[in-house]
Write a structure and sequence with these properties.
By secondary structure, the chain is α+β, with helices and mostly antiparallel strands. It is built from 10 helices and 14 strands. The protein has a 7-stranded antiparallel sheet with strand order 2-6-7-1-5-4-3. It has a 5-stranded mixed sheet with strand order 10-9-8-11-12, sandwiched between helices. A two-stranded antiparallel sheet has the order 13-14.
């Protein structure tokens, strides 16, 4: 499995200037490639290949007066920028044909120099290295100081240098992990768990554990409003406005970093303690169009489930997603009776069939675990019905179009 390990970079003034030059050259080559493709489409000519674009936009362009400054940066950076444009077009065409999973991908657009997030990539043939003093040596940039938070488990195959909206620099290394070593780090266990995600509590587990929602955005709203008002009062194009913009960006990345750290810690703990995990396949995009949109985005369910997914694959765990239309909140986990729909303010309810009083979220977590086939009885047999294949007329029901598997 390929994973990314990101570390903070601290380039000096000269190295920041060199990185800015590399970001700009990579952006120009990307835009030139998109322009060449668009010109070919409008004139109904065949699209130029990557080799033709490389020869015209890099090799020959360096010999001209208008593009001679492309020679001031590493050629690998420019080649990778062409690869990015080619990958963007492949994803676009695959999305048009329906061969690509997920939402529709639009056609590649020109990159703006006003975009505050920039990145460049160095592959192995760029001859970058990590020095004996722990610095990252990049061609035509120099040895950049790195804040190592942990050791790299293997030799990286590439490194991407990223500058985010808050003006911070990061080095993102691509590592090929060893599956046997990863699974040895987390021995097998017989525990399984069901998770009900929510807003009152971020997660309620089938064993009764309730994990409070940190609500990072809600807690930071007062400071965000203050720095946003300061930004609005500054004149456009002034240095003070740029300083105010950085304050706003830093306030937002602080919230995002805290949320990401919370997701990582919780997902790692659940993966290490449980062999099987069951979650609901929530429609986050749909929930984000309701009046609860801000709270839904603040929770970050999609990011959390994504972390559970790749960590389960890495450490040999089982992650099961149950259908979003499974009535987990209306089904009695004791007798299996299905009650009527309940508004969100109802947090406890009594089963009319057996009289058991249920906590809404805890009951839903138990039903999530049962629906995934992870619950077992005292004799070791699975509890609840097995998976039933959908009939042909059921595909795309509930008013939603069917999605490609």
């Amino acid at each position: 499995m390929q994973l990314r390990y990101a570390f903070r970079l601290y380039p000096d003034t000269g190295q920041q200037t060199a990185l800015t030059r590399a970001f700009g050259c990579a952006r120009v080559v990307f835009n030139d490639a998109v322009r060449a493709r668009e010109d070919a489409r409008k004139t109904e000519r065949p699209f130029p290949t990557v080799g033709q674009l490389s020869r015209k936009l890099i090799t020959e362009a360096k010999r001209t007066a208008e593009r001679s400054w492309l020679g001031e940066v590493s050629a690998v950076v420019l080649q990778q920028s062409l690869r990015d444009a080619e990958r963007a077009y492949r994803n676009f065409f695959a999305s048009l044909k329906g061969a690509r999973k997920g939402p529709r991908t639009g056609a590649p657009r020109f990159k703006s120099r006003k975009d505050k997030r920039q990145s460049i990539r160095f592959t192995a043939n760029a001859h970058w290295s990590i020095t004996d003093r722990g610095r990252l040596s990049l061609p035509k940039i120099g040895a950049v100081k790195v804040k190592w938070s942990r050791a790299l488990p293997a030799t990286p195959s590439s490194v991407t240098v990223v500058k985010d909206t808050a003006g911070r620099y990061f080095a993102s290394f691509v590592i090929d992990t060893d599956p046997a070593a990863d699974q040895a780090r987390m021995p097998e266990t017989d525990r399984t768990i069901g998770i009900d995600l929510g807003l009152t509590h971020f997660a309620v587990l089938s064993d009764g554990t309730k994990i409070d929602s940190p609500r990072f955005l809600r807690r930071a709203e007062k400071k965000l409003r203050k720095v946003q008002r300061e930004l609005c009062s500054k004149q456009k194009g002034s240095k003070n406005r740029e300083k105010a913009r950085l304050k706003v960006a830093r306030a937002h990345v602080k919230v995002a970093d805290a949320r990401r750290e919370f997701h990582h810690q919780l997902s790692t703990r659940l993966i290490s303690e449980n062999q099987g995990i069951a979650v609901e396949d929530l429609s986050v995009a749909g929930l984000a169009r309701t009046k609860l949109a801000k709270s839904v985005h603040d929770a970050g369910w999609a990011s959390f489930i994504g972390m559970l997914e790749y960590k389960a694959a890495r450490y040999g765990r089982t992650l099961v997603r149950i259908g979003r239309f499974t009535p987990t909140s209306r089904t009695c986990s004791a007798c299996g009776a299905v009650d009527g729909p309940k508004p969100l303010y109802v947090r406890e309810w009594t089963c009319a069939a057996c009289g058991v009083v249920h906590d809404r979220d805890h009951n839903a977590a138990i039903n999530v675990k049962t629906a995934a086939g992870l619950a077992v009885s005292a004799c070791g047999a699975p509890v609840g019905p097995g998976a039933i294949p959908a009939q042909r007329e059921e595909t795309g029901s509930h008013g939603f179009p069917a999605r490609a598997a």
